[in-house]
Specification:
Distance between the termini: 66 Å
Largest sheet: 2 strands, parallel
Strand order of the largest sheet: 1-2
Number of domains: 2
Number of helices: 12
Length: about 300
């Protein structure tokens, strides 16, 4: 049996599908590749980072990244920094996200090695974005959280104008949220195509139905998560203006993620199952990964 592209049952967190999409984007030729450590010639490709210990403090990792140390050590520092498990409930959360954004900013400004620059910016920016985006609705009364979000927005604004075309294309995946993509239309289309393939090529039926079941499971889990997020205490206690902002942003981001689930991840599953030529004959090709970029406005502080 062919190995399925893994589509885990969706976790009850807003960031899960975002991470899945980002991981997929790094592997597909359809979207501009941002190299991981595997794309950096001469560097260790397996196992744990070997030149930076797990107990290296966050500010120490930042110093290594923004230095002229050996590239292997800098790659390991990026990996360690991006892998640290922090939430807004941790007392050093703000300092951690600031280290991520400062590292990304330094690399955009100073790094001369194009491959490491792409890798480091991708790892630090994507982590800072997912954390700040998930944390802001829960902590919108904290001015420091707004400052973090504005710092991430500033990095995005720089990235879409970067001198490196591949980095510009990476940042372009974050589409400003204006109109939701019609993921239901794409879901219906790809379901019809799947039935057409099965009718014409019945030998692929078991494989395709298994893949489709995984996609359905992921979609259904996400659709169960969305109303829970919108009805959470963090959302319901917000002032009406802020609640409207975060509700709209959350709904739009879910729409983009579900659209990508079908048009990129499931389309890639079809290609993997039946081959590129057959997929082309049925009009199937993975679409570019696009993620919604929410627009949040900090309320004016009353004197």
């Amino acid at each position: 049996m062919k190995k399925y592209f893994r589509l885990s049952a969706a976790l009850p967190v807003l960031a899960w599908l975002c991470c899945a999409v980002q991981s997929a984007a790094a592997q597909t030729a359809v979207y501009p590749e941002i190299p991981g450590r595997f794309g950096l010639a001469g560097l260790a490709e397996e196992g744990e980072p070997r030149t930076v210990t797990p107990d290296t403090p966050v500010d120490g990792l930042e110093l290594i990244i923004c230095s002229d140390d050996a590239q292997q050590q800098r790659v390991d520092a990026v990996r360690r920094l991006a892998d640290i498990n922090k939430t807004s409930k941790d007392p050093d959360y703000i300092a951690y996200v600031r280290s991520l954004t400062r590292s990304a900013d330094w690399l955009l400004t100073n790094e001369e090695d194009a491959g490491f620059r792409r890798y480091g910016v991708f790892m630090t920016f994507s982590r800072a974005y997912s954390l700040a985006n998930a944390s802001l609705p829960e902590n919108s009364g904290d001015p420091l959280e707004w400052k973090l979000w504005k710092g991430v927005e500033k990095l995005h604004g720089r990235g879409v104008k970067d001198k490196d075309k591949r980095l510009r294309e990476y940042f372009d995946r974050y589409v400003p949220l204006k109109k939701e993509p019609d993921w239901k239309k794409e879901s219906a289309r790809l379901r019809r195509v799947t039935e057409q393939i099965i009718k014409a090529l019945p030998e692929y039926e078991t494989d395709l139905r298994g893949r489709l079941a995984l996609v359905d499971s992921t979609q259904n889990s996400q659709l169960q998560v969305l109303p829970k997020l919108l009805a959470s205490p963090a959302m319901t206690r917000l002032p009406p203006e802020l609640r409207a902002q975060f509700t709209r942003g959350t709904q739009q981001q879910f729409a983009y993620r579900l659209h990508t689930l079908w048009t990129n991840l499931y389309a890639r599953n079809i290609v993997e199952a039946i081959g590129e030529k057959n997929a082309r004959d049925f009009g199937v090709a993975p679409a570019e990964v696009k993620l919604g970029w929410p627009s949040y406005t900090q309320p004016k502080q009353t004197p």
